[in-house]
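To: structure subgroup
Subject: Chain for Friday's discussion

All,

I'm putting the inputs and outputs inline so they're searchable in the archive.
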Amino acid sequence: MDTVFFALTAILIVGTLFAAIAKFFKQPLIVSYIITGIVLKIIFPAIFDANFAQFGEIGVALLLFIVGMKLNPKFMKDLGKFSLIAGFGQIAFSFILSVGLAKFLFGFCCEEVFFIAVAMCFSSTIILIKILTDQKQIEKLYAKLTTGILIFQDLAAVVVIFILSNISNGNLANNLLRVGWENATKGFLFLSVIYLIYTTVLPRVVKFFSTNQELLFLFTMTWCFAWSAVAYLLGFSIEIGALLAGVALSDIPFHYEMEVKIRRIRDFFLIIFFVSLGSYVNLNQLINHPNALYHISSLTILALLINPFIIFQLLKHTKLTFRTIFLTALNFSQMSEFAFIILGLGIKNGILNNDYVLQILTIVAIITMTISSYLITFNEQILQWKWVQKWGKKHNHKHIKHTLHLFNKDEKMMKKISKKKYEHIFFGYNGTNHSLIKKFQNKLHKILIVDYNPRIIHKLCNKKLQCLYADADDEEILDEIKHPGIKTIVSILENTDANFKVVRTFSKIRPKPVIIVSAHDPEDALKLYKMGADFVVIPRLISSDVIAQIIKDENKRKDIKHKIKEFRQAQMKSLKEIKSF
């Protein structure tokens, strides 16, 4: 007990110090945790015993539990084929290149080659989502594509984890077939039981526990640990049990609240996991190894340059704009936390016996995570570099025809759009625009809808509406679709930066169209008016006006109730139409 307590104390003190330094220099905190492990291994090597490593396994289980909750089949359907092509295509090409590099240039054995190749295939979900969220970029098209590709990468990583979790002390190739046969029946029964519970009693059970926040937290932890234990008793790993437990909750209405409640506990145990991984690094061995610098530099180039280049080449054939493709590709320039989970399983199960592989990959991860955080943070500035602009002009295409062709084979519709017969442009098919477009029933052929959700674009095409799969934040798209005959622009987007670009672009047209946009605060609204917007929607102010209109006469309580009922019925009708769409 004393050993564990003082080990946790040392990790918290040193980890907090390095995390503060990383935060000051705007570096990923994962890097600081790995460095903490390297330092503590030198100063206090005795704290890293076998029992201590189990704390890290709990963090991995909780991470996979949350990943499982994100694998909602409906969400997966919305990701689109672009993410599918780039996700699995990048994994395939990166794996092949890494195998060639590790086998023929480095001379590693088959097991070591496998783990190096797998580790180089994935990018960091935690780092990318955190940076994109902090920068308020998560709703942009390139961020949506990034999220989609990450989900497919996570799925591939989960498959690898599932295989490795059930192989122990033997040759990897010889065990694959045996593991498949031994676990197929048990896995089928395990999934069947979870599915039966999910379809029968789980929704009602969750609804009961959701009445109390503390009970909901307790149930979430119990559900995760219980199925992890069942998986372990069946011969699977606790990580696989946690993942499947999370998938079962992915379509439950309260899954987001459940995820939020366990996120901090997950983070605490993941800190221990990354610290323990850092403890595997032997700096003396790396310094004395004659080829360490060569191995580390080669793998760093692969992660920083080759992987983003593969993503770029795969997305280039989708005919998205250069800006969207470039920013998406730039995000995939670091190693993933899943690489360490896979490496950890390899060491734990006796498949990977060479600590040197883990050590060089840990150094590569520290370097790539550090550099990529700067690349992602300053991606807009990088996009303005002269050679990038030159590259963009070389690779850019006329996107409207090509993009429409991906979603609609109706050549007549394509000709109409190419001749620019549309007079009204709506950016985003959200609730507000859905209601507005209904008012144009007799002028639908004169409307162009711009959205970056593939599912919405497909449905709009099926309804024979003119639409474009693009991001309003992309000025190349805005320049291509503008023409002097436009009468109305409506952009009720949450992305205020995109609304600024819409106003800046279309206010230059003569005669100037009516421009209606949205803003979240009065300061942005005043800027938009100054730039040329005709009306700026501020949701909270409009809500205040509607409420004031409903209750302006306190003496007429019956009239107030009647007005509220009318507003409620009208709103519910619109919400049902949007949901059915």
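Points worth raising on Friday:
DSSP finds 29 helices and six strands in the chain.
The chain has two domains: 2-390, 399-537.

D.
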